[in-house]
Amino acid sequence: MRPGNFVRVTSASDITLSDYQIERRGPVLPLQVGATAHISVSLLASDATAEEPEQCRQSAIKYMGKSAH
Fold first, then answer.
1. What pTM does this model have?
2. Which of 1, 5, 47, 59 has the fewest CB atoms inside 10 Å of its own CB, making it the most exposed?
3. Burial of 28 (0-12, 13-18, 19+ CB in 10 A)
4. Residue 23 sits in which domain range?
5. What average pLDDT does range 64-69 have in this prediction?
6. Is 54 part of a structural domain of the chain?
């Protein structure tokens, strides 16, 4: 069991580049870059202190032995 409480936030959206004044200039750029961009974000947060995960690891090593990796 990992220490602390976890929160995960994910989001995905498409944005139109022209809405943000991003221009696709030149003869090649409009062919290589679409008019919209897909944006995805994933966040993970915990309220555990910096010491808690290390204590958890040491406890696991004590009872299960060191990882083979």
1. 0.52
2. 1
3. exposed
4. 6-64
5. 70
6. yes
